[in-house]
Amino acid sequence: MEDVTRLPERPASAVTTPAGDWGRSGQFSPGTLLAGRFRIVAPLGRGGMGEVYRADDLKLEQTVALKFLPDALVHDPARLAQFHNEVRVARTVSHRNVCRMYDIGDANGRPFLAMEYVDGEDLASLLRRIGRFPQDKAVEVARQLCAGLAAAHERGVLHRDLKPANVMIDGEGHVRITDFGLAALAGSVDNVRAGTPAYMAPEQLAGREVTPRSDLYALGLVLFELFTGKRVFEARTLNELIALHESDSVAMPSSVVRDLEPAVERAILRCLERDPARRPPSALAVSAALPGSDPLAAALAAGETPSPEMVAAAGEQSALRPAVGLSLVGFTLAMLAALAALSQQFSFIHQIPIPRSTDSLRDRARDIIERLGYRDPPPFDSAEGWSFNRDYFSYAAERQGGTRSWPEAPTGRTGTLTFWYRTSPSMLYSSTNSMLPSAGDPPFTVPDMRLIRLDPAGRLVEFHSIPPQREAPSTRGDESARSGQAPSTRDDASARSGQAATQMVAAPQWSPLFEAAGLTMTAFHEVEPRWLPRSESDVRSAWEGPLPDVDGVTARVEGAAYGGRPIFFSVIAPWTQPATTPTAQARPRSFREVIPAVSMMIGALILGAAALLARRNLRTGRGDRRGAFRTAAIVFVAQTAGYLLHARHYASIELEVARVEDILAYTTLSAATVWLLYMALEPYVRRFWPQLLIAWNRLLSGNVRDPLVGRDVLIGVAAGTVGALLIASLQIVPQLLGRAVTPALPSPTILLGTRYAIVGALLALLRSLINALQVVAIVVFLKILVKRNWIVLVLSTLLVLPIAMTGLVQGQAPAVEGAIFVAGVLLVIGVLLRFGLLAVIVTFYTFIAMEIFPLTTDPSRPYAGTSAVVVIAIAAIAAYGFYASRGGEPLFGRTLLD
Prior knowledge:
Elements (H helix, E strand, L loop, with lengths): L18 H7 L7 E2 L3 E10 L2 E8 L4 E7 L8 H14 L10 E7 L2 E7 L3 E3 H8 L4 H20 L2 E2 L8 E4 L4 E3 L6 E2 L16 H4 L6 H17 L9 H10 L5 H4 L5 H10 L11 H7 L5 H7 L6 H6 L8 H25 L11 H14 L9 E8 L2 H9 L17 E8 L25 E5 L5 E6 L13 H4 L10 H5 L1 H5 L7 H6 L8 E3 L11 E8 L7 E9 L2 E8 L18 H30 L4 H22 L6 H36 L5 H7 L6 H31 L17 H31 L3 H17 L8 H22 L1 H16 L11 H22 L7 H5 L1
Antiparallel strand pairs: 1-2, 2-3, 3-4, 4-6, 5-6, 7-9, 8-11, 9-10, 12-13, 13-14, 14-15, 15-19, 16-17, 17-18, 18-19
């Protein structure tokens, strides 16, 4: 087949205007020297806006094209301004498919433009000569047209006069968009109707507006001619052309060329939509809609950085096959069921009996406080919650000789899980760090504050009360003080020491406390007190005796009273450790302590480098500001909603405003961190590995039902369940091997209701994004330095390992843990390299959500509701992924529906 984009061998002077005509009207003859630099070779063409010559630049020794204004327009200020505007605007666009503009000069009072010389023919002349292009050549030319127009739009430049006469094709078939004489920056168009009416969009003809989508309409008209050899509208007058536009009667390209591919026809007709909002979002989207399109490969091969719009328009567009999507959904559901069963079997929390609900334990705590004599006045505020303690694990491991078992766990006496309830005569306003009151926040220092701890069965574990700051006269003193008579002078030794006053106070009753703790007081014998209460006391006692339900374990009970009422009571098991235990001497850091330090160093290096790169990308205009803002906005909204739902709220406007300010300050900082990382990394990912961003950019642009978005979500959820299984294996495998390992404990908020499951789901998004961006930073920067992918994979695994191990490594089964962590890192990096950023974010999100909340198959467990919320949420994400992956096609395929 003849290559119609290659011109026949003929002199350049015959490109547009016959040489004989130029002999009569041309201003410069061959050989004329202009501005002491340019020697005229031959005339190339003439139009209403100027005359074009081929010339040799003697200074740079290259061929250029010189464009002069016609004589009649040399002194026209408007035309001169337009002439200057052409070079000013065109120089902002640098692309291989846009004719390059060099400079503006003057020759004997006649201004001229020096531009790239294209040894070829304009598209209008070529179409008149050959009719239409073969489809494969037309697609090639169309794709280059789209790339050039997209480059102009990316710089904010509207061409406003795109037509075949302003498209040059050189002898190699390369396209150049020329003539930016009417071009303008978007939003600064004065004369809307300027241009060639036959190639104007309806809104431009009507004088309403000119936008990038107006250029896309002109692009559709040009593509129609390119593929069919015919114009869309054949009109003899402007009024007739306007009438044709208003009739909205656009001919189908397939009615002219019957074997035209449907994809080509769809792309053209979308450009020719009368409503600008229904046209493609960009020229790159038009290019992506053409058959066989791969704009990313073309841009990378040309050494260019594709724009975010080009990235979003690239990649797979067709729906995922139903069999593949349903298989991924089925795999995810099967993994959820397996994880729930494994969690029920091996997770430590399932070994702790929790027979009473939070509400029941709260009532039990109030009843105990009242029985101890603390009835009046009623507390102004109260709070409750759950807490975990790890002291028992070390004791059990040492006693069992390193084997993996917790024989006392089913008794509920280990203190691993306790319910706490506290009251206060003032508002319990927690610090910014916690958002919720806890057993120690706000500090337990105000008089008449009380704190009680119960085990899950409602047995008393600990009680504290802060006595009044000023004691009442009847608390200490002699009988005369209590009867209202003036106290006598106490001059004996016991009065001076205060012992007499102490003896006159009623002895505290300890039996109700022992009874509340489920202990038999007669089974205990008194010993010397060792544990101090949190405040002043006048009586201290201690006992030792057997701990019920636990064979061979002696418990210690400590108590203190003030003014005849107990202010301290604690059941202390052998494994109980003081709140702060100072170390006798410095010891070398363990492997478990070094890993977080290494992870923090890597994170700090990434953040520091991100700050420098983000600043550089902002100054050079390379960053995707819109994508960074939308990503940060997602984090800000999710974090703010999560903390507002998590935090305790108060009737005081002052306190509530302060709490909201704290939340907004923290969430703004989180969003700013994500924005910084995105601005720093995204341009480099787009330059060296743009495929990683395709689905993410489509999601950010609002294409929530895009097939590629759905596919990556499905992959991410499925991979996330595998990641959750690997995390669970850190507990399961050592148990199966009989190794000692400290059990993982979830957040105690899981016992407070499903509200906190929703909070956890919202707050997990930040961790997912940060972790994903850190992995992307490591992988992409290594990709820049190292060309071989397998080396990138190995080095990335080594650098990501410390981040993955932070908070999870135990160091008690190094070989097992190391293998599991390597498998997890390879899973994450493999998902990233194969499917991209969106898939790896969903992967992180899925297993982080299941790490926070343990799954259970027992509906009687108090956290069964949160477990159900997590399972339903992950299943819903998988269902959404399948729905989106079908891209509007029937969900289960046409065969089933038919």
